[in-house]
């Protein structure tokens, strides 16, 4: 008879990770595994409150493509935006996403 082993992610102090934290982490890592989204996250980190047009220039993509890439990031709450007039100003707000960007910039 085969036995089933349950793997529980642990912190260094031995405490189990919360399943919601694991889900959120997988979402963030999945979204930022796309090179274009990671470049957008870096651009938002370097230039908070950027418009889609500014971000498009920073990452050398069309504004339509940038909008499409931002949509799931907004949905997952990695970024926030403030509407000013006819444009939205974006910034990266998720702490895990910010720490991934900082790590990427520190290891280049």
Describe the structure.
It is a single chain. The chain has helices at 19-32, 35-46, 52-59, 63-75, 95-106; strands spanning 79-84, 87-92. By secondary structure, it is mostly helical. It has a domain at 41-106: Orthogonal Bundle (Arc Repressor Mutant, subunit A). The chain has a two-stranded antiparallel sheet. A hairpin with a 2-residue loop joins strand 1 (79-84) and strand 2 (87-92). Helix 2 crosses helix 3 (52-59), helix 2 packs across helix 5 (95-106) and helix 3 packs across helix 4. The longest helix has 14 residues, at 19-32. The protein starts with 18 loop residues before the first helix and ends with a helix. The model is unreliable at 3-7 (pLDDT under 50).
The outline comes out as: globular
Looking at this structure, what is the CATH superfamily of the domain at 41-106? Winged helix-like DNA-binding domain superfamily/Winged helix DNA-binding domain
By CATH reckoning, the class of the domain at 41-106 would read Mainly Alpha
Can you count the helices?
A: 5
Which range does the strand content fall in?
5-15%
Described by strand count, sense and barrel closure, the largest sheet is: 2 strands, antiparallel
Instruction: Please trace the helix and strand order, writing H or E for each element.
Output: HHHHEEH
Helix percent reads 40-55%
Strands, total number: 2
Q: What is the arithmetic mean of pLDDT?
A: 89
- N/C terminus separation: 50 Å
The CATH architecture designation of the domain at 41-106 is: Orthogonal Bundle
Which regions have little confidence, pLDDT < 50, spanning 5+ residues? 3-7
**Alpha-carbon Rg, integer:** 17 Å
CATH topology of the domain at 41-106: Arc Repressor Mutant, subunit A
Strand order of the largest sheet: 1-2
Query: What class, by secondary structure content?
Result: mainly alpha
């Amino acid at each position: 008879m085969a036995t089933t082993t349950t793997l529980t992610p642990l912190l260094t102090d031995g405490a189990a990770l919360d399943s919601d934290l694991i889900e959120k982490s997988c979402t963030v890592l999945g979204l930022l595994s796309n090179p274009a989204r990671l470049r957008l996250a870096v651009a938002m980190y370097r230039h908070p409150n950027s418009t889609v047009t500014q971000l498009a220039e920073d990452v050398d993509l069309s504004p339509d493509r940038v909008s499409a890439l931002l949509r799931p990031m907004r949905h997952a709450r990695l970024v926030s935006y403030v509407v000013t007039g006819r444009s939205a100003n974006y910034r990266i707000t998720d702490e895990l996403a910010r720490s991934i960007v900082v790590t990427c910039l520190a290891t280049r």
